[in-house]
Amino acid sequence: MNCYELIYALPGDANQEVMNDFNNDIKSKITEKGGKVEEIDFWGLKKFAYPVNKKLEGNYYFLKFFLEPKFLLELQNHFRISDLVLRYNFMKIEKDFSIRKKKNRKINLEDKSKEEINN
């Protein structure tokens, strides 16, 4: 199961009930496929840099979840065909990102010390 982060914007003039229903629908789609929603965060109403579907502002949401890769396309299609979603972006998050960063740093330090010895 992979970890994903999703950022999406709903219209700024959308009703709170409609947005809550959409968020609950997304959570249920993820859990139906055996996934797990770890975090959902409302980032607030923000202005767009340019009009998007004739809207000047949108309500931004952040969602962190775990899901099997074979079900991700189905979720992306749901966002693509939804009239309520103005913009969205899925990102796959590496689980061992911090570990890799530390390992790479250690390798780079070892390489530098070898270069100093050779010089």
Please give a structural write-up.
There is one protein chain. By secondary structure, this protein is α+β, with helices and mostly antiparallel strands. 41% of the residues lie in helices and 39% in strands. It has a 4-stranded antiparallel sheet. It is globular, with a radius of gyration of 20 Å. The N and C termini lie far apart (47 Å).
Topology:
Blueprint lengths: L1 E10 L4 H17 L3 E17 L2 E13 L4 H10 L5 E7 L3 H22 L1
Antiparallel strand pairs: 1-3, 1-4, 2-3
Rounded to an integer in angstroms, the radius of gyration calculated over CA atoms is 20 Å
Biggest β-sheet: strands ordered side by side in the sheet: 2-3-1-4
Fraction of helical residues: 40-55%
Tally the helices: what do you get? 3
Kindly report the average pLDDT value. 86
Short descriptors:
Alpha-Beta Plaits, 41% helix, 4-stranded antiparallel sheet, 119 residues, globular
Describe what is shown at a glance.
The protein is 41% helix and 39% strand. It has 119 residues and is of the alpha+beta class.
